[in-house]
From TrEMBL:
It comes from Promerops cafer (Cape sugarbird). Belongs to the thymidine/pyrimidine-nucleoside phosphorylase family. The keyword Thylakoid does not apply. The gene is Tymp. The lineage of its organism: Eukaryota, Metazoa, Chordata, Craniata, Vertebrata. One of its GO terms (cellular component) is cytosol. Homodimer. The keyword Signal does not apply. This is TYPH phosphorylase. Residues 31-92 form the Glycosyl transferase family 3 N-terminal domain.
Amino acid sequence: VPAGPNRGAGCPKPGRQLSGTGMDAPTPLPTLIRKKRDGERLEEAEIRSFVRGVTEGTAQQGQIGAMLMAIRLRGMDAGETLALTQAMASSGRTLAWPPAWHGLVVDKHSTGGVGDKVSLALAPALAACGCKVRGTRRWGGDRGVPEPLCPPAPLPQVPMISGRGLGHTGGTLDKLEAIPGFRVSQSPEEMQHILAQVGCCIVGQSAELVPADRVLYGLRDVTATVDSLPLITASILSKKAAEQLSALVLDVKFGGAALYPTQESARELAQSLVEVGTHLGIRTAALLTRMEQPLGRAVGNALEVLEALECLGGGGPPDLRHLVTALG
């Protein structure tokens, strides 16, 4: 599903429109649950009120679970999904990057599948290909290679706000925590420092970054609402909107080892992601990938980290190398 013109009705004009949680008069949450349960459309202010209750802790877990199930059963139109994404993105801090990085902050996200360790290989591979030019050093200048007349243009930075295991799929953060001492919680300032040094970082949601998704993500896993199209769209893109991305590539998987069993259902999700991402002002493209079996040969957090390292060294399973290359 290529990046391109916006498809759906109900979304406002594309662009950076991260509406804040605002100070709208709160609507009683049971009223909102009843409204969505009965198939009615939620207004933007009502969605912001729900997300504010999630973030501030005034919404009870039972109420949040009921709303998630109502959304799972009744769905959301494009405008509702966009409003939910914006409210979740604005529930915490929005990252700010140096002016020199303008237009160069990119990311990749996968809908997940058994053995999916692509992010572990792709992010550092992009950085190793020159995703950061340090200081005034010229390409090759520290290796005895003649320097070009002009230093290279800055290349993309790769921040990834990733998630944990959801349903039967493994989480990137869980895999990274198999590395002793690895810390997935980083402040925005620490993220910027890491990016300036190595060109990529992988972190999790925190009290500062998209806290609403941190709550909803965990509850979706225990309320059988993991496969809800609007909830998946909002969860993924709220994190990407908070990153202030310029471009995003999505790996939308389908098959026996993925969240979505059929190509048709995966295509519907991909179209939703591209549409909402574009309306957020992010150049978004999606790749549909079949996953009838685990990706690579290793399944398990520590084993998958080792396999990703093999891939970075030019080895590892061919299917993993191919997908890393295709998404890169």
